[in-house]
Amino acid sequence: MNLDLPNFVLSLAAALAGACSLQLAQDVFAHQADESVAHDPYAVFRCYGGPVPSGILRVPAVSVQCQATGKSPSAALRLANSLYEACYDASGNPRTHWVIDGKQIDGSGALIADTQNWEVRLINLNQPPGQIGRDDRGRTEAVFNLDIFYMPKEIS
C-alpha cells in the first residue's frame, strides 16, 4: 500500500479546485504557492501537526490546513468558503468514500496522472473558515482545518 502523502495532498487540492471550477497552480496549490503565477486570491493546502483523531477508522489520517490569501479580506474569505463547501457532498454531509484522481508532478514540473487514485474515507471539518490576520505583505489570510482519513485506490 503506497501512502504517498505529498501526492495525496496534491490530488486532494486538485479535486477540490476542480469542484470549485478553480485552476490548480494558479488559484489553488498543494504544499506551497508559486506567487509568481498565483492569482489573487489563492489558496494552499498543506499538512500540519494537528492531532488526528485516532480510533475512528483504522485507516491512515492526516491533518490539513487550507489557507487562502488575498488583497481583499472578502475575496480571501470567499475563496476559503468555496473550498470548504466543496468538502461537503450534495446532501450537505462531509464527503465520505469519495474517490479522487491521483495526481503527481513529473520531472519537468507538469501535473500528470498518478499510478493510483485515492479514496477519501471521511473528512472531518474542524471549523468553518475564518480570518487569522495579515501576512507580511498586508494580505488577508483566512483558514480552515480538516482531518482526512484516506486510502490508496487501485485504478480500474
Key attributes of the depicted protein:
156 residues; seven-stranded mixed beta sheet; alpha+beta; 9 strands
Commentary on this structure:
- The protein has helices at 5-19, 73-85, and strands at residues 28-30, 42-47, 61-70, 96-100, 103-105, 111-113, 117-125, 130-134, 140-153.
- It has 156 residues and is of the alpha+beta class.
- 33% of the residues are buried.
Topology:
Elements: H1 5-19, E1 28-30, E2 42-47, E3 61-70, H2 73-85, E4 96-100, E5 103-105, E6 111-113, E7 117-125, E8 130-134, E9 140-153
Parallel strand pairs: 1-2
Antiparallel strand pairs: 2-3, 3-9, 4-7, 5-6, 7-9, 8-9
Gist of the model:
The chain has 156 residues and is of the alpha+beta class. It has 2 helices and 9 strands.
Oligomeric grouping of the chains: single chain
The share of residues in helices is: 10-25%
Overall outline: globular
The biggest sheet, with number of strands, parallel, antiparallel or mixed sense and barrel status, is:
7 strands, mixed
Radius of gyration: 15 Å
